[in-house]
Amino acid sequence: MRRFFPLLTAILVGALATGIGMTIFLKKANSDRERLAGIAQQTQEESKIAQEKSQKIVEDANKKLEDANAEIAKAQQAVKDLQEERDLIARAAPLTAPNPKLTKGWKEIVDLPLGITFKAPPTSRVETNDAASFSLATESEKWFSVTPYDERLESELLAEIATSTRVTYVVDGHLVVGWQGKAENQFGSTYLLHVRKDGRNSHLIWARTPTGTSGPQTLTAALASISFAQ
């Protein structure tokens, strides 16, 4: 028995040492696993952040590219519009100041909000004179109006002209483009014109021959008398 106890003791001590060693190893292994798992998670998070930053950089670059392309297209369109305006001016008929005898006694009217000056026959009265419109009328009808350019209104007024032909004028250095025609059951001519300056439509002009006047001469004289602040 005496010889057995030392052997048993040695076995127990060995087992204890092995157990302690295994515990330390397992603890270290768990610690390493947790550390590696943390590194892996941190790497994933950093990778995700990097991807998000990369995506943001790509999106920002695409947005800047789209904006640049839009600006280029806008600039190209502006050049095209200016070239078209220059070509039209070269072919346009100038409306020069009318014969003073025809406009003797006419009154000069100013619409500051619209930036226009205009001469009107003494038989006409100012119906509106503000930023929204400038219009003249005789006792029986409205025969002249200027408004800020509005494409929808232009289409509506054009639909009221039964027959029309394209006309192009230069008035006070501004290109004036539109239609001359006749409305149904109406005396004289009707004009629907828009004013272009530096490639931009600024004003819409509607006018028709006022009754009780010298007809077309009165209308063209009135159009020729327009001057613009800009």
Could you give a quick summary of the protein structure above?
By secondary structure, the chain is an alpha+beta fold. It has helices spanning 4-91, 151-159, 216-224; strands spanning 93-94, 107-111, 116-120, 125-129, 134-137, 142-148, 161-171, 174-183, 190-197, 200-208, 227-228.
Question: Could you outline the blueprint of secondary structure elements for this entry?
Answer:
Elements: H1 4-91, E1 93-94, E2 107-111, E3 116-120, E4 125-129, E5 134-137, E6 142-148, H2 151-159, E7 161-171, E8 174-183, E9 190-197, E10 200-208, H3 216-224, E11 227-228
Number of domains: 2
How do the strands line up in the largest sheet? 1-7-8-9-10-6-5-4
Report the sheet-strand fraction. Answer: 25-35%
Output the structural class. Answer: alpha+beta
Task: Please count the helical segments.
Answer: 3
Mind describing the biggest β-sheet? 8 strands, mixed
Mean pLDDT over all positions: 79
Principal-axis shape equals rod-shaped
What is the straight-line distance between the termini?
Answer: 125 Å
The succession of helices and strands, N to C, reads HEEEEEEHEEEEHE
Note down, in words, how this protein is organized:
The chain is an alpha+beta fold. It has two domains: 1-91; 97-228, Protein Transport Mog1p, Chain A (3-Layer(aba) Sandwich), CATH 3.40.1000. 46% of the residues lie in helices and 30% in strands. The chain is built from three helices and eleven strands; from the N terminus they run H-E-E-E-E-E-E-H-E-E-E-E-H-E. The chain has helices at residues 4-91, 151-159, 216-224, and strands at residues 93-94, 107-111, 116-120, 125-129, 134-137, 142-148, 161-171, 174-183, 190-197, 200-208, 227-228. The strands form two sheets. The protein has an eight-stranded mixed beta sheet, with helices on both faces. It has a three-stranded antiparallel beta sheet with strand order 2-3-11. The longest helix has 88 residues, at 4-91. The protein is rod-shaped, with a radius of gyration of 43 Å.
